[in-house]
Design a protein that fits this description.
Blueprint: H1 2-5, E1 9-12, H2 16-23, E2 31-34, E3 44-46, E4 50-54, H3 59-63, H4 70-79, H5 85-90, H6 93-99, H7 106-112, E5 116-121, E6 124-129, H8 130-133, E7 134-136, E8 139-140, E9 147-154, E10 159-168, E11 178-187, E12 192-200, H9 210-216, H10 226-237, H11 250-271
The protein binds flavin-adenine dinucleotide.
Length: 277
């Protein structure tokens, strides 16, 4: 149907973003392809090497999955910051990704966790990293005749991954003024093998910071200090290109993204059992 109707057609998932965009005339589809009853897109699967989350998984379902894996606990804690309980029963994980708001809450976590977006079209499926998924404000790598099928979070085979997410907001139902997420993998030798970072609301897309990640990778968990994490957060914050808008000034966002990342990194290290000095 998407291919048949072209740019006039849009996916309707939970409709919580679509309703607002339509009301404000940011979109005006003549055909809505309602995928709410596509049950094959509504699942959370925990495997040995990955966690798969279907695009039509409601935020409320993700919220209730906390007990199944500590990474799902991290994502569940994020959903509790989002919308209201009523909206979370409609709003979906895929809709949050595909709306591609730079201030969305799940997106920085998916970037930090090095998740993969599985995109489905008439020619089968293709995969892009969560970082490459976002191409601009409300713009993603999903083509007009494709849909997001699922998000896959890889789990390390030779270590453990822990993550964290921090945000600043004005009210509980507002989107983030600025946010930051960190995911740290520690190998069985106790050395940090991978660091993922996601910076939100400081650029048109969710940013990562490979140079900051590299500054922490290779460090023994036992040697990580608060000063080291502050240094890593400062490197990452240099990537930010915030703007001033109704919610916050560019300067505030620039300062706070560094604080959010530092705290997210501290949480991730603490979740590993690291003792910060
Ligand atoms: C009161 C309120 C509070 C909110 N608070 C927050 C908040 O705190 N944090 C936050 O991040 N967001 C928040 N939101 C935004 C919104 O609820 C979320 O982004 C939600 O997850 C969107 O999901 P949805 O299923 O409703 O998407 P929809 O509105 O159905 O779709 C959003 C966009 O994605 C496209 N789309 C949806 N699914 C797919 C798919 N599988 N493949 C391809 N394209 C797709 C649609 O065509 C549309 O362009 C809030 C919204 C409201 C109304």
């Amino acid at each position: 149907m998407l291919a048949e109707h072209g740019p006039d057609a849009m996916i309707w998932a939970g409709g919580t973003d679509m309703t607002l965009h339509w009301q404000r005339e940011k979109v005006s589809p003549t055909v809505c392809v309602d995928i709410r009853d596509v049950s094959q897109l509504d699942f959370i699967e925990v495997g040995n090497d990955a966690i798969r989350i279907g695009a039509m998984t409601a935020l409320a379902t993700l919220e209730r999955a906390a007990g199944r894996h500590h990474i799902l606990k991290m994502l569940s804690d994020i959903t509790k910051l989002m919308c209201t309980p009523q909206t979370r029963t409609l709003a979906t994980v895929g809709g949050n990704m595909c709306n591609a708001s730079p201030a969305a809450d799940l997106s920085p976590a998916f970037v930090a966790l090095d998740a993969t977006a599985v995109i489905f079209g008439r020619n089968g499926t293709r995969e892009v990293t969560a970082y490459d998924f976002f191409v601009g404000v409300n713009r993603t790598a999903v083509a007009q005749d494709e849909i997001l099928q699922e998000v896959t979070i890889p789990l390390p085979s030779d270590g453990e991954i822990h993550g964290s997410y921090r945000r600043i907001d004005r009210t509980v139902v507002d989107i983030a003024l600025v946010n930051g997420s960190a995911a740290v993998t520690v190998g069985i030798d106790g050395v940090i093998s991978k660091v993922g970072l996601g910076l939100g609301a400081v650029a048109p897309i969710i940013l990562n910071a490979p140079d900051a990640s590299a500054a922490l990778e290779g460090t023994s968990l036992a040697d990580v200090t608060r000063d080291k994490l502050a240094e890593v957060a400062a490197i990452a914050a240099r990537h930010a290109k915030p703007i001033t808008d109704v919610r916050a000034s560019a300067g505030y966002r620039q300062d706070m993204v560094e604080v959010m990342l530092r705290r997210a990194l501290e949480d991730a290290i603490t979740n590993h059992g690291g003792k910060l000095r």
